[in-house]
Amino acid sequence: MLRNYLRDFLNPSEFYINIYDKNIHIVNYQKVETLGTNKIIIKAPLKKIILEGNNFSLNKLADQELLISGKLDNLEIKYE
After folding, report:
1. Which of these, 45, 42, 60, lies nearest to 14 by C-alpha position?
2. What is the three-class DSSP state of 70?
3. What is the mean pLDDT of residues 19-38?
4. CA 71 to CA 80: how far, in whole Å?
């Protein structure tokens, strides 16, 4: 059990999103559909994540990982 937890921590396999005061961290997404200063749409397995706010800026774009800064006003999840 501990081994599985450590493996998932070091190499996560599931989609997740962390929301902080001025940052949004997204891991294991499939595609960035829209990237704007006021709206970002992310495709994830079986869902679409819609972020709305102000002054969005992409700070990190790595393999299946995004770090976005800005003021988040609304988060919507649409299951497909």
Report:
1. 45
2. strand
3. 94
4. 27
Closest alpha carbon to 33 in 60, 66, 55: 66
Question: What is the rounded distance in angstroms from the CA atom of residue 39 to the CA atom of residue 60?
Answer: 17
Determine the Cα angle at 7 with ends 16 and 49, to 5°.
Answer: 10
Residues 40-60: tens digit of each pLDDT? 999 998 999 999 999 999 999
How far apart, in whole angstroms, are the C-alpha atoms of residue 52 and residue 39?
5
CA distance 43 to 63: 15
**Residue 18 backbone dihedrals phi, psi, to 5 degrees:** -115, 135
Prediction pTM value: 0.82
Rg for the chain, CA atoms, rounded: 13
